[in-house]
Structure formats: C-alpha cells, structure tokens
Amino acid sequence: MPTVVLMDVSLSMTRSVSLEGNEEFQRKNLAVHGLTMLFEHMAVNYRLEFTSLVAFSSLYELLVPFTRDYNTLQEALTNLEDYDKTCLESALNGVSNIVQQEWGSSCPCQLVLVTDGSLGIGKGSLRHSLQTLKQRADDKKFPLPFPFPAKLYIMCVANAEELQMTDTMDNLEELLHLSGGDGQIFTMEGPLCLKSVQAMFGRLIDYAYSPFHAVLHCGNLSSDVQVFPRPEPVVVDEEVDPIPRTVNTDLEIVGFIEIGDISSPPVISRHLVLPIAVNKEVDEVGTGATDEPEEEASASQIAGKSPNFCVLLHGSLKVEGMVALVQLGPDWYGMLYSQADSKKKSNLMMSLFEPGPEPLPWLGKVCQLGPISEAAENPYGEDDSKSPFPVQPSIKRSYAQNVTVWIKASGLQTDVQKILRNARKLPEKTQTFYKELNRLRKAALAFGFWELLKSVGELLERECTLLPDSAHPDAAFQLSHAAQQLKLASTGDSQYAAFDHNIAPMHTDFSS
Fold first, then answer.
1. 183-188 and 150-159: which strand pairing?
2. How far, rounded to the nearest angstrom, does the alpha carbon of residue 172 sit from its chain's CA centroid?
3. Residue of 61, 51, 48 lying closest to 10 (CA atoms)
4. Pick from 296, 292, 172, 297: which is nearest to 232 by CA?
5. Taking the C-alpha atoms of 279, 283, 288 and 289 in order, what is their torsion angle to the nearest 10 degrees?
6. DSSP string of 230-299, one letter each residue
7. Would you state the pLDDT for residue 294?
C-alpha cells in the first residue's frame, strides 16, 4: 500500500517555537523531525513500502517519486525550501494525478498530510474551497474523494487548544469526511517541542504502520512471518450486529489444492508474506502498478543459512503448481500461493477470502474438504483426467433454470400461443402442453397475475368447443381439466394456488 507524504512548506510553517534553552526551532523543523522518525521506522519495518514526498504551498512539487530508498526521502527533507501561502486544494489535485499515473485508480493509497493547521487566506484556502463545494462546475470539482481508495492522516504541528480557537478543526474534520472518513487527525499534546512531535508520530505509527507478525503452521512445521501490508479488519454486512473480524496471529494451513481447481477466486485483499527469521538481506525488486493492496518481494532471494519452513513452502507451491488453504480465524479462510513478478523473481502471497464457511461456492464448505488418501477412489482419476470440482449443489439454483419474464406484451402473447398450439395437437402433445401450462401458471402466481390464469382457462374452454368431430376424445377431457384447474388457481385459494404444485394430466383410458 503506497504512501504519499504531503508536506506543507508555506510561510506559516516558519513560525518559531521556543524549546528548552535558548535554541529556537520552526514548526517546519518539528515536522521534519517527526517525518524522519516515520521514515526510519518504515526503513526497518516497511522496507518494501513505496513512499513519495510532495511539498506544497500555493503550488505543489513532487520532490521524490515513489521509492523504497528512504535515504533519498530523508535527504529531501533536509533540503526543503520556504514558499508562499497555503493552498491545499491544488496539492490534493496533484496527489490525485501522481497516484493515478503510478498506480492507477484501484490501488489503495495512504496520504500523510503534515501541516500546522493553517487553512490559507482568500481564494484557494481550505475554508473557501469547502464553502464553494456546491457552486462548482463539473470540471472544477473538489479533488476529494479521490478516484482511488485512500486513507487520510492529518498531522497537525499544533495542539488541540490552538486549533479550536478558530474553525480549523471543523474544517479539517470536514476534509477527513470528504475523503471517505477512513483516517484520523493527529494533534500535538502539551507544548510544541520535539518530545510532543515524537509522541504524535508515534501514535500514527501505532495506528497505521505497525508491522503484522504471525506464525504460519502446517502440521509440526512452523515459521515466523511478517505480512505486508497489515490486514485490515473486515465487517460482514449480512450480520445483524456486525463485529469487525481480524486475522489471527496464528495462521494454520488446512490443506493444499491445485491451482486449476481454485481458479481466480474473489478476494478481499492480497498481502505479501515474508519469513522474518532469515530476513536479513532482500534484494531490490522492480516496481509495478497493482490492483490490490500488495507488495512485492522475492522469497527465493532472502539470504540466510537457517532452515525456514516459509521458504520451503514457497518453493514447493511454485514447483507443484498448487495453493495452500490457510485458516485466518473462525469460519474465515484464505490461500497462500507463489506469484511471479518477473522471470526470475517470485513472491509468497496471501489472499483473503470473504468470511464464511463457503467462500468459494464451487469448492463447497472448506471444512468438508479432505485429503485424496481418504477418498474411496482418486477423485482426479488415474491420469488426472477429471476433477471433483465444481461441487454440484443438492438444490438446483434459481439462476440455473429458465425464468419466465414478461417485459413486453409480445412475450406473454407468445407463451399463450405456444399453449394453444399444443392444445390443438392433443393427445400427441400432452406432455409438452402441460409443461408449458405449468410454466405459465408458476409465473402468473409469482407475479400475482390472477387474471391471466382465469383468461387462459377461458381460452382453453373455447378451444374445447371448437374441436372438430374427428378429434380424439381425450383432447376434450384434457382441455376441460386444465381450464378448471387454472380457474381454481385464479381464486387465490391456497389449496389450488400453491406455487410448487403442478397440474397433472387427467387420467383417462381409451385403449378399448
């Protein structure tokens, strides 16, 4: 999940702050100190994270494009220059363009806005931008919400009391709301000093950049791993009182399955899994736009002489062309697989499925899957010519049946005419006649179209009176029987209008 650091370099950031002793610092110096702390943390714990640095005042400037070189980012911080007034809207437009050019519009991104809380003056100020939201033309809309998923973290080099003296906090909260509300506003507690700014950025690190450590288990084998980016809690909307579900720190592999059987399943997010026991040297890998919150690394390039199950698992999945089903929590599963980002580099990835016992319908319930050795016969056949998947449901799904839909009058007329054509060919077309009749009856009952049943019944009675003398006697009996059943169903009586009931042919015997 890439990060954009948006640094305010307007004149208000040059206001001096008195520290202990006679030394004076500017608010910009405090902001640089906090960002240095953030970059040092990411260099150790998020070394595979892509980060960009953008400075803004009335205009914006891309100081460092997306990179994993945190030394370059820290050098750019030490060379910041001072410019003019604050204009946050143009900076947000710039961030939107930078992210879309590098990652597209589907990759989630984190934006860290570092400012002193000054909203700017006059046209272009945040206050003016928010006041004119509803008076804008379509080509001049406010850049929030971004066209890509984003989290906004606002780091104010000011304390809450200072911000609440004006409407600054209200405007920043509205800005956060416009971004989607997924983020937080951080302010300094106590006097403006190095200790306070360290505490503020420490809260940001704990909230958004704390590494996710877990233990990957498979039978008697296990490995300490780190997951990038940190898996977010998931809320199941279908639940009455939804409680956010979090990924367990103990990840249990419950089985293995062929890639062809897993196909391309729908996933919530994708994450990189790295073994941390031997993660001392990781070669730099290429960048690339992705459509999920994922990072890249080469598990095969991780240096170290200690045996590690995670490296063994990655190599095995890659060679055998299989995936590992992993349990993330109660009734929540995912899969581990090898993903190649080039001909020589591949990564051990983890995809999270939707919570539930049956996340992939064609596999059935995950808890009911078992090893091939326990099956009476090999479900894949002797030469892998067949597969036990997809699992056929015991009940035929509604979308697998022919559904009757009458959008236009011509469609209804066609169905009625089909019944009448078969009625004139009785008794040869008895089975087809009743099949079409029951199809129309079910559709009419589903729509509450009682009048249709009554009208078709009258049509069948009319057809009975028009039968020629040469007609088979069974035709008159079947038409009269069908007409009577339709009229009874048109009354709405539950005894005759049951949806699952089918009109059966009248039993007659003209063999003699």
1. parallel
2. 28
3. 61
4. 292
5. 20
6. PPPPB--TTSSS---B---SEEEEEEEEEHHHH-S---SEEEEEEESSSTT----------SSS-----G
7. 42
The tokens for 336 are: 């581990």
Report the SS3 class of residue 63: strand
The burial class, CB within 10 Å (0-12 / 13-18 / 19+), for 313 is buried
Burial of 424 (C-beta count, 10 Å sphere; 0-12/13-18/19+): middle
CA distance 346 to 285: 10
Distance between alpha carbon 462 and the CA centroid of its chain, in Å? 58
* Residue 268 main-chain phi, psi, to 5 deg: -80, -45
Tokens of 315: 């190599």
CA dihedral 227, 232, 233, 239 (to 10 degrees): -120
Residue-wise DSSP of 90-118: HHHHHHHHHHHHHH-SSS-EEEEEEE-S-
Alpha-carbon distance of 375 to 165, in angstroms, equals 72
DSSP assignment string, 401-415:
SPPP--SSHHHHHHH
Name which residue leads in pLDDT, 241 or 300: 241
Task: Return the DSSP state at 142.
Answer: -
Structure tokens, 243: 């409680």
How far apart CA 61 and CA 78 sit, in angstroms, is 15
Single-letter amino acid, residue 23: E
CA distances from 193 to 8, 15, 19, 117, 161 (A): 18, 13, 6, 16, 15
pLDDT in tens, 327-339: 999 999 999 999 8
Burial of 85 (0-12, 13-18, 19+ CB in 10 A): middle
pTM: 0.67
